[in-house]
């Protein structure tokens, strides 16, 4: 068996992140080596001109500054479709109008409750900066949408919201805004599971002719899967967004490329912790696919990976959305 030699990292002033991650791939450094492999797979995946690229992530990281990385991924054309959770809408929209704050996992949650604050991991926001601001802003938007469209898929609804927030001062910081601008569908299978979902229900209570049609999202996914020559996915975390991404890809015999970033474990049998090799048994990832799972905190790993990628590829090659 011939294996590459372990090479020492060479710290030096002015080194690019992309150069560091290339060194990671041969440093034998456990997770570092996997992150180096992820960069190489990403480079190959996004260079494929006939590849349809999925981006999947959970809402929690949208409450953090990693929202800016996700926004740039879609703005620069590195995603053809986003599959995520309802909370992504909650945090992305709320942060257009209200600030979130750096806190700590060690904060006293009883005290936060008394002072009307929510905690999202180590991020803190006032209760008024979440559900209250969304109700104030979304109900008029939903009324305006309903005046012309009674039935929408989740991706259609999100584009309609994106079009109407374009006039907001901080719109260009928003993932939703750039998905609207680039016409990148955002599919949310669990649309009612969050504050925006609650606003949709509240609106429906007095507008029973308004509806969200999830089957239209599934129809769009079927069109993508049955026509795509190749598919690849950058999958952050797990849950419904991860599963929906790989579930649909089984109908084309699996993803050609897959990059997982996760903290979930395999031994509890959960989908969130299931590694790429398990997906091969379901035909969700092809046996010959290029894939890697990088274990660790996405708020550290995703910026490193993406910053390194755009060192060499500022925009996705051949993707008009990124221009």
What number is the mean pLDDT? 96
Shape: globular
Instruction: Sketch the major β-sheet.
Output: 6 strands, parallel
* SSE order, one letter for each helix or strand: HHEHEHEHEEHEHHEHEHEHEHEH
CATH topology value of the largest domain:
Deoxyhypusine Synthase
Which CATH C-level class of the largest domain is it? Alpha Beta
Number of domains: 2
Helix content: 40-55%
Please outline what is shown here:
The chain is an alpha/beta fold and 323 residues long.
Describe how the helices and strands are arranged.
Layout (H helix, E strand, L loop, with lengths): L16 H8 L6 H17 L3 E6 L10 H9 L5 E3 L2 H12 L3 E2 L6 H6 L2 E4 L2 E4 L4 H16 L4 E2 L1 H12 L9 H8 L3 E2 L7 H12 L4 E2 L1 H14 L2 E7 L2 H11 L5 E8 L13 H6 L3 E11 L2 H15 L11
Helix pairs in contact: 1-2, 1-13, 2-13, 3-8, 6-9, 7-8
Q: Any overview of this molecule?
A:
The chain is of the alpha/beta class and 323 residues long. It folds into 2 domains: 13-47 and 229-316, 3-Layer(aba) Sandwich (Deoxyhypusine Synthase), CATH 3.40.910.10; 90-221, Deoxyhypusine Synthase (3-Layer(aba) Sandwich). The protein is built from 13 helices and 11 strands. It has helices at 17-24, 31-47, 67-75, 86-97, 109-114, 131-146, 154-165, 175-182, 195-206, 214-227, 239-249, 276-281, 298-312; strands at 51-56, 81-83, 101-102, 117-120, 123-126, 151-152, 186-187, 211-212, 230-236, 255-262, 285-295. A hairpin with a 2-residue loop joins strand 4 (117-120) and strand 5. Helix 1 (17-24) crosses helix 13 (298-312), helix 6 crosses helix 9 and helix 7 (154-165) crosses helix 8. The chain starts with 16 loop residues before the first helix and ends in an 11-residue tail after the last helix. The mean pLDDT is 96.
């Amino acid at each position: 068996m011939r294996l590459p030699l372990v090479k020492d990292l060479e710290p030096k002033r002015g080194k690019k992140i992309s150069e560091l991650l290339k060194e990671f791939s041969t440093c034998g450094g456990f997770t570092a080596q996997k992150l180096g492999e992820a960069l190489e797979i990403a480079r190959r995946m996004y260079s494929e001109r006939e590849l349809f690229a999925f981006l999947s992530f959970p809402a929690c990281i949208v409450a953090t500054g990693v929202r800016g990385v996700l926004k740039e991924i879609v703005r620069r054309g590195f995603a053809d479709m986003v599959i995520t959770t309802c909370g992504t809408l909650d945090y992305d929209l709320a942060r257009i109008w209200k600030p979130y704050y750096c806190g700590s996992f060690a904060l006293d949650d009883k005290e936060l409750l008394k002072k009307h604050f929510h905690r999202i991991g180590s991020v803190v926001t006032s209760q008024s900066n979440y559900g209250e601001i969304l109700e104030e802003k979304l109900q008029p938007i939903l009324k305006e949408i309903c005046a012309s469209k009674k039935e929408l898929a989740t991706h259609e609804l999100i584009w309609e919201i994106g079009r109407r927030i374009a006039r907001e001062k901080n719109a260009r910081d928003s993932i939703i805004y750039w998905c609207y601008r680039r016409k990148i569908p955002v599919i949310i299978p669990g649309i009612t599971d969050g504050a925006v979902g609650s606003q949709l229900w509240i609106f429906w209570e007095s507008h029973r002719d308004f509806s969200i049609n999830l089957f239209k999202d599934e129809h769009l996914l079927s069109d993508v899967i049955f026509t795509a020559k190749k598919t690849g996915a950058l999958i952050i975390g797990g849950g419904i967004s991860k599963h929906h991404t790989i579930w649909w890809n089984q109908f084309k015999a699996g993803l050609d490329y897959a990059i997982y970033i996760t903290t979930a474990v395999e031994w509890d049998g959960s989908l969130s912790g299931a590694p790429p090799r398990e997906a091969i048994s379901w035909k969700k990832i092809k046996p010959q696919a290029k894939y890697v799972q990088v274990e660790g905190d996405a708020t550290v790993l995703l910026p490193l990976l993406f910053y390194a990628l755009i060192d060499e590829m500022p925009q996705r090659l051949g993707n008009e959305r990124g221009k």
